[in-house]
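Quick review question:
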């Protein structure tokens, strides 16, 4: 039996590749760490910190639509409604079947007193929502918006 020695250079290259692959895997998961920290910041009402963390999450994974949704929550809590709507539009661009983003978009438009846009967003949410309980809530929002639009038209 002949033992074949592996050249030191090959061992060094293999070690380098293993380290590179393992560290890049950790980096790839950073967006989830930032996201989870951002969720905590939302729960404790640290809006600036939540925005910072969701922004870091999105820097690592720009297709993470839920981070856009949650950053939009923080923006809306700070009164930055246009930024909130922009994030929600990005979330539904990445995932058109995400009713929660349309629902929040409706709420933000409603806060801005843009009832026509709110109604459109709520209708989009209803079209995508499959769960019965949220569907009932969205239907109520739609009725409320229709009533506000009708009242504004008769004034």
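Suggested answer, residue by residue:
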């Amino acid at each position: 039996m002949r033992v074949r020695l592996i050249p030191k250079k090959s061992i060094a290259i293999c070690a380098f590749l293993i380290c590179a692959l393992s560290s890049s895997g950790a980096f790839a998961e950073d967006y989830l760490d930032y996201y989870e920290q951002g969720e905590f910041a939302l729960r404790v009402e640290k809006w600036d910190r939540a925005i910072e963390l969701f922004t870091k999450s999105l820097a690592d994974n720009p297709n993470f639509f839920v981070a856009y949704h949650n950053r939009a929550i923080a923006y809306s809590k700070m009164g930055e409604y246009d930024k909130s709507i922009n994030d929600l539009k990005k979330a539904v661009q990445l995932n058109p079947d995400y009713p929660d983003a349309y629902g929040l978009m409706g709420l933000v438009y409603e806060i801005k007193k843009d009832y026509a846009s709110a109604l459109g967003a709520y209708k989009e949410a209803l079209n995508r929502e499959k769960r019965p309980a949220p569907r009932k809530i969205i239907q109520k929002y739609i009725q409320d918006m229709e009533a506000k639009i009708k009242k504004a038209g008769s004034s």
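Why it works: Residues 10-26 have pLDDT under 50 and may be disordered. DSSP finds seven helices and no strands in the chain.
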